[in-house]
Specification:
Layout: H1 9-19, E1 23-26, H2 29-36, E2 49-50, E3 53-54, E4 58-62, E5 70-74, H3 81-88, E6 95-99, H4 105-119, E7 126-129, H5 136-145, E8 150-153, H6 155-163, H7 167-190, H8 197-210, E9 214-222, E10 241-249, E11 252-262, H9 267-286, H10 293-304, E12 313-320, E13 324-329, E14 343-352, E15 356-367, E16 370-374, E17 382-384
Parallel strand pairs: 1-7, 5-6, 7-8, 11-17
Antiparallel strand pairs: 1-4, 2-3, 4-5, 9-10, 10-11, 12-13, 12-14, 14-15, 15-16
């Protein structure tokens, strides 16, 4: 029995009709994994570059007949991708096409995908491609092999398809957010006033890897001042430090920010942190199904622009999943209404030049009656006793 597609087929069909798309042709690591249900050739999972070119695979999903989807990957005497698919487990795409190692696998893979589309009756179709990520030689091959086809950007369609998270996706997001928050807290407690922000960032990167996740970034600020780059500057006693860390687990992304200090924080920094926490609480209370993105923006912006530091307050809310800043888009006049299963990263912050960058950031999933935090751990200000 062939496994079912791991995404919402009806939602894909509706989105494709709205955007007049006949075929989705995905080629990025995250969207290949999304459409296959988690598979990507792990040899190239961290870096696609190889020789004088790069590895490239495709998943094609004809919208009217999703079960006629096909996969394009690599198969030769050195690396047979079929073995990796077998090891992965049930793979819902039965139609597979192979490209051997060559001077330009990206061009060759695109040519094979185009010929398969033409053979399937899609030679004159409207094909949604990931144009922001597709190599130029691959695009040229698609145009050459499918001269009657129309190519459009797949990002809006795939972003909307991913916007409603399924239970397995939410579990991954819970795991990676909790992991990231715990790594930040561990880095605070393992550090001293003499440690530099660069050394603290290196600890975070190491601990993320030890937990089986992928490190993306650590933005570090020690106040006063607003620099958020790891450097040779020491943390120092009594100085507020902001750690904003990104990590990924099986392609799902966490974006978490926490505050800490060696010894008690300055009174003004602590007061500004309470503004940020209260603002996030107000945003969470406003989030729920049917609420517009504009209403969320206004609630949060009003909340951070309170008190004596109102001019320095800022709110940023963005969708999060396999991509940071994916739909839904939360903006001042955003008419989009939230739906259960959407995930929002909520950033409430005060960037005070005389205090520092004070911030807390967490993510929530929209539920049927409100929202639920993902990885809500260690959210209080961390006071480290060490000198």
């Amino acid at each position: 029995m062939t496994p079912a597609p791991p995404f919402d087929v009806e939602r894909l069909a509706r989105l494709a009709r709205e955007q007049q798309v006949d075929v989705v042709l995905a080629s990025t690591r995250h969207n290949v994994r999304y459409l296959t249900g988690g598979y990507y050739l792990h040899f190239f999972a961290r870096a696609s570059r190889f020789g004088g070119g790069q590895y490239l695979s495709f998943v094609a999903v004809p919208v009217a007949r999703p079960h006629s989807a096909f996969y394009v990957g690599r198969r030769d005497q050195i690396l047979d991708e079929q073995h990796y698919i077998d090891a992965f487990g049930p793979f819902w795409i039965a139609d597979r096409h192979w490209v051997p190692r060559g001077p330009s696998m990206s061009e060759d893979a695109a040519a094979v995908a185009a010929r398969a589309l033409r053979a399937g009756g899609h030679g004159a179709a409207t094909v949604a491609i990931e144009s922001s990520f597709l190599p130029a030689d691959a695009y040229d091959a698609l145009r050459r092999e499918l001269p009657e086809a129309t190519f459009v950007n797949a990002a809006p369609l795939l972003g909307e398809l991913r916007a409603i998270k399924q239970p397995r996706e939410l579990e991954r997001l819970r795991d990676v957010h909790r992991l990231t928050a715990e790594v930040i807290r561990r880095a605070f407690y393992e550090s001293t006033a003499s440690d530099t922000t660069g050394e603290i960032s290196a600890k975070i990167q190491r601990h993320v890897g030890e937990r089986g996740a992928g490190f993306l970034y650590s933005l570090v600020n020690v106040g006063p001042g607003l620099l958020r780059a790891p450097s040779s500057e020491p943390w120092g006693r009594g100085r507020p430090m902001h750690l904003d860390v990104g990590a990924e687990l099986d392609e799902y992304v966490a974006d978490v920010a926490r505050m800490g200090s060696v010894g008690a924080p300055p009174a003004e920094a602590a007061a500004l942190f309470e503004v940020c926490v209260a603002a996030q609480t107000r945003v969470r209370a406003a989030v729920g199904p049917g609420v517009t993105c504009g209403e969320v923006w206004h609630t949060g912006t009003d909340a951070v622009k309170t008190g004596p530091a109102a001019e320095y307050g800022r709110l940023l809310v963005h969708g999060l999943g396999m991509v940071s800043h994916e739909p839904p888009v939360v903006a001042e006049d955003g008419p989009r209404r939230l739906e259960p299963g959407m995930v929002l990263s909520i950033e409430t912050e005060v960037r005070h030049p005389d205090v520092g960058h004070i911030k807390i950031e967490d993510s929530v999933v929209v539920t049927r009656d409100g929202c639920e935090g993902l990885g809500d751990v260690d959210r209080d200000w961390c006071v480290v006793a060490g000198g």
